[in-house]
Structure formats: structure tokens, C-alpha cells
Amino acid sequence: MRINKLTPGYNLRWESSRMMLPEHREQLLEERRKQQEFIPAILDNDQLQEIDRVIVKSIETRQAITITYATKHGPAHFFGWIQKVEIHEGWLKMALNEETLTIPFKRIINVETN
What we know:
Layout: H1 22-36, H2 45-61, E1 65-70, E2 75-86, E3 91-96, E4 99-104, E5 108-113
């Protein structure tokens, strides 16, 4: 093996100069986070109408539903009853026992009856 200045441990004089500025490190980490973020698929009209139909039926019959919604890192599920729907502000509130969740409409991926 031929030893040169790129061989680990043989360029001790400049070994410590291979560091990054904190700003550059943060920028690289931010780029990795953005690449790992979950971006949900855009729903077509049929899917949106089906979601609307299930939500309305759930409210009318007081039936529990499972809602799938987008989070930053992937889809998440919540089982419960719809407590409030705010059409103008674009969100709905669900509850199960003491736990509540407010979900913006644009983050809803799927709704299922149980």
C-alpha cells in the first residue's frame, strides 16, 4: 500500500482541518430532512366526495371512523368520533375518550367507517 496525504492517520498535521462550519452542517441536515418529509398524493374529486360522504354519515349516525392523515414523516391514523367540523376554517376535530385531534382538511388522506 502506498502512503500519501489522503491515507487516514498519515496526514496528522492537516487531519483536523477536515471539518465543516456549523452553518454548512445545518444546511446539509436540513436538506436531508426535506428529502425525508412525507408528501401525500393529491386526491381526485371521486376520493374527496367519498371522504365527504363518510364524514357526513359519521356525523349523522354518530358512528366512529378511522381517519388517515398526513404528518411530516408519513401517514398516521386516528380512531374516534367527529366532534366539530369548521368548513370555513378548513378543519375537523375528532375525539376518543380524553384524546382529541384537530386535522386540517388538506391533510386528510382517507376516511373509513368501522
